[in-house]
Design goal:
Layout lengths: L2 H17 L6 H7 L2 E7 L6 H17 L9 E7 L7 H11 L4 E3 L4 H14 L2 E4 L16 E3 L6 H4 L1 H7 L4 E7 L2 H16 L3 E8 L7 H10 L3 E5 L2 H13 L2 H4 L1 E5 L7 H4 L7 E4 L8 H14 L5 H19 L7 H9 L2 E4 L2 E5 L5 E11 L2 E12 L10
Parallel strand pairs: 1-2, 1-3, 3-4, 4-5, 6-7, 6-8, 8-9, 9-10
Antiparallel strand pairs: 10-13, 11-12, 12-13, 13-14
The structure holds P-hydroxybenzoic acid.
P-hydroxybenzoic acid binds next to loops.
InterPro entries: BCAA_transport, Leu-bd, Peripla_BP_I, TAT_signal
Organism: Hydrogenophaga luteola
Keywords: Signal
Length: about 400
């Protein structure tokens, strides 16, 4: 039988089944049903604003394409993961088993991500990570159905050490929350700072999401380092910036951070954030048509200023659109879907980026300085920063 005859015969059978009301073959059902998209994000707690920004960005990308994915309508499902790792598996299972999502978009917190990761690997459901940077998800436990559109936790800090030493800050204290994101941000910092000739005087930490910084700030004052470097994010970052300034340390010890420190918190932190230097894959002030258009449209739509989390949500939407368009909405065609996502170049507000073999962005890191409630780019700290992808067997 020729290929053409085969196609005709098959479609005749499909039409017959459909018109007689019999169970539709899965290919027809896949094309006509709505795509089920599940958001598993924090909508409460210290990362609540991050979850909202990611969802807004994702929806904005989809709406720019007429609200569809590969020609199919979308149905959204939502779970508030509360940035609570203890509920990670249960919440991800709910989206996969009860809501039967085709794609799970989540999450922010690295510990919660590990719950999602287990469920994604066991179920084979497509998981797009719009923030959480936990290394193992795109290293030893990388998976064909897991793609990250954000960063790995050590990527921003791999670009930080040299920038600090270049400014003459050679003795630093490191401070963070003691969990995967803080520990792995330290890994990048330690590597880049010591390679550039810096010395880490002391490592300080507190449990996530505690914000009782006072005793630690007193210790920093007595250690008198040249600089402080840190990882904090969300509501906790705003509090750290304010407490650092209230203790008078912003006058005497230059504060640096993985760029999340100054994302989405500049209104809340006010003058306390002025002069803080960070490295990050995005900046409000990037002077590109893609960023200007994005910022204008986001502000008009959501009556909020976008930040890196909104950009990551937007890029997650762009990646999903590329994949879905490549398979004309047939998300069951996983081989072609994943190939399209792996080969994608995302024309992002952050600048163009590509996907590594381990499914993590390869991207430029900017050096930024806070001035008048804006993260101003003062240079590219490092071009095309890639995570090592150590132990990942995807090729
Ligand atoms: C993480 O837990 O991986 C995480 C959370 C918030 C950030 C960055 C990383 O801003």
């Amino acid at each position: 039988m020729t290929t053409r005859r085969l196609v005709l015969t098959r479609s005749a059978a499909v039409i017959g089944a459909a018109s007689s009301g019999l169970l539709l073959p899965s290919i027809v059902r896949a094309q006509s049903d709505k795509v089920r998209v599940g958001f598993m994000l924090p909508y409460t707690g210290t990362f609540a604003q991050l979850g909202v920004a990611i969802e807004n960005g994702f929806r904005m990308a989809i709406n720019e394409q007429g609200g569809k994915l590969g020609g199919r309508e979308i149905e959204f499902f939502k779970v508030d993961d509360e940035s609570n790792p203890a509920k990670g598996i249960e919440n991800a299972t709910r989206l996969v088993q009860r809501d039967k999502v085709d794609v799970l978009v989540g999450t922010v917190h690295s510990g919660v991500q590990m719950g999602i990761h287990k469920v994604a690997r066991e179920s084979g459901v497509l998981n797009l990570i719009p923030n959480a940077g936990v290394h193992i998800a795109t290293r030893a436990q990388c998976a064909p159905n897991v793609f990250r559109t954000s960063f790995s936790n050590s990527q921003p800090t791999l670009a930080l050490g040299k920038a600090m030493v270049d400014r003459g800050h050679k003795k630093a204290v490191w401070i963070t929350w003691n969990y995967a994101a803080g520990d792995e941000a330290f890994e990048g910092f330690e590597q880049s700072y010591t390679a550039a000739g810096g010395t880490i005087v002391k490592k300080l930490g507190l449990p996530f999401p505690n914000v009782e910084f006072q005793a630690l700030l007193t210790e920093i004052a007595s250690l008198k380092p040249d600089a402080v470097a840190c990882f904090f994010a969300g509501g906790g970052a705003a509090k750290f910036l304010k407490d650092y300034a209230a203790a008078g340390l912003n006058k005497s010890i230059q504060l640096y951070g993985s760029g999340f420190l100054t994302e989405g918190v500049l209104e809340a932190a006010g003058d306390a954030a002025n002069g803080v230097l960070t490295t990050m894959h995005y900046s409000d002030s990037l002077d590109t048509p893609a960023n200007k258009k994005f910022r204008l449209e986001y502000a008009k739509t959501f009556k909020l200023q976008p930040d890196v989390y909104a950009v990551q949500g937007y890029d997650t939407g762009l990646l999903m659109i590329k994949g879905a368009n490549a398979v004309k909405g047939d998300l069951g065609n996983k081989k072609a879907l994943y190939a399209a996502m792996e080969g994608a170049t995302i024309d992002s507000p952050r600048g163009k980026w590509t996907m590594s073999k381990a499914h993590n962005p390869v991207q430029d890191m900017y050096l930024r300085k806070v001035e008048n409630k804006e993260n101003k780019v003062i240079g590219i700290a490092q071009k095309a920063v890639a995570d090592s992808g150590a132990g990942c067997k995807l090729s």
